[in-house]
Design goal:
The complex is a heterodimer of chains A (115) and B (114). With 115 residues, chain A is an all-beta fold. Chain A has no helices and eleven strands. Chain B is an all-beta fold and 114 residues long. Classes of the chains: A mainly beta (115), B mainly beta (114).
Chain lengths: 115, 114
């Protein structure tokens, strides 16, 4: 399988549940990202991992917890979410080569609904 | 405050005509600009980019123009095809080349009518 794969594609959870989103890339990239897309808002960068180390956390609430066990896998652990956290969560990866633009390859996203 | 703005939420164009999608930015430190296309139920896919030291980049039917003095860029699609109907996102690379983070606009939904 190639590209960036996200599972599950759809998730419905209650505010007290604990769930995880998974992302896998088969592109040999060395950086991975979580973005959030809410209705009528720009894509919001949540977390960046470069060489498996978190390099940025854009003031994301602690109820979102990322994990990057290796350069091919990225998780987003969800706990006690709020209804306003309902959104499309997009995973992306890129190769930081030191030149040119940072071209991200995105997965298809995980649509999260919090009841 | 938004650093990358796409002020038109939607655009409708006839097949065969030109589509022009606009984007404005506020940060003069952006070193690259990118356009992404997104179909429903799919992730955004990279379309074309331009360096801040260029004013034009062309790839087939897609051309991006950059006006640094106006902090404005545009994506031209000629000729437009029904398959181009999608949401187009403008993104700016916040320095550092390929290690810089991307700042996205809200997107413009393009509809190309047969």
């Amino acid at each position: 399988e190639t590209g960036v794969t996200q599972t599950p594609r759809h998730l419905v959870m209650g505010m007290t549940n604990k769930k995880s989103l998974k992302c896998e890339q088969h592109l040999g990239h060395n950086a991975m990202y979580w973005y959030k897309q809410s209705a009528k808002k720009p894509l919001e960068l949540m977390f960046v991992y470069s060489l498996e180390e978190r390099v940025e956390n854009n003031s994301v609430p602690s109820r979102f917890s990322p994990e990057c066990p290796n350069s091919s896998h990225l998780f987003l652990h969800l706990h006690t979410l709020q209804p306003e956290d309902s959104a499309l969560y997009l995973c992306a990866s890129s190769r930081a080569s030191g030149s040119g633009a940072n071209v991200l390859t995105f997965g298809a996203g995980s649509r999260l609904t919090v009841l | 405050d938004q650093q990358v703005k796409q002020n038109s939420p939607s655009l409708s164009v006839q097949e065969g005509r030109i589509s022009i999608l606009n984007c404005d930015y506020t940060n003069s430190m952006f070193d690259y600009f990118l356009w992404y296309k997104k179909y429903p139920a799919e992730g955004p896919t990279f379309l074309i980019s331009i360096s801040s030291i260029k004013d034009k980049n062309e790839d087939g039917r897609f051309t991006v123009f950059l006006n640094k003095s106006a902090k404005h860029l545009s994506l031209h699609i000629v000729p437009s095809q029904p398959g181009d109907s999608a949401v187009y996102f403008c993104a700016a690379n916040l320095g550092g080349g390929s290690q810089g983070n991307l700042i996205f606009g809200k997107g413009t939904k393009l509809s190309v009518k047969p």
